[in-house]
Please model this.
Amino acid sequence: MRRLSKQEISTLPLFEGLPTDATYIVSDIHKAKLAIEHISEYAVLGFDTESKPCFSKGEISTGPHLIQVSTLEKVFLFPAEVTEAVNLLLPILENVQIKKVGFGLKADSVLLSRKFGIDLAGIIDLANSIQRRLKLENSIGARNSVAMILRKKLSKIVQMSNWSARPLNPKQIQYASNDAYSALVTYMRFMDLRCDDIRTRIVKR
Model:
């Protein structure tokens, strides 16, 4: 397996992620409790954060402004200003037994620690894992990882948008959802895992 060129990636089908109605904005404590109840069914989660970009020299990020957590069925978007919801999420983020998989998570860890005092644990940085296992010479990001492992094109069109603005627009919501969900399904394909392999228990529906 080799790294794909930009031209090759452009020819791949778009990564579409979960349906729109499977993404939830956790805007209050009640929604947070429901989110945590569902998230707790999983031992492996897709994870990411979004921050308003810094364009000026010396500007310090005030992010993260959004925290994304994905299961195979749903994605939850936690706005950073809803602190009671973030506080409920904290035990999961700091639990080393629950794997949080994503791309470039070192920067996310720094921002979470600085803003919330969160010690992000149990993280698996897919960019590093894929680079090491495939013995790639250069580092690899989310877009190329998804292209190589899933043979899909991950859109980055709104990556540099204002993530502190509220409400989030539909394109931002879809992008944020796809970033977290794509990390989870890429990890499962890369590690050859089944759905039951990433659950804390088999839940009866």
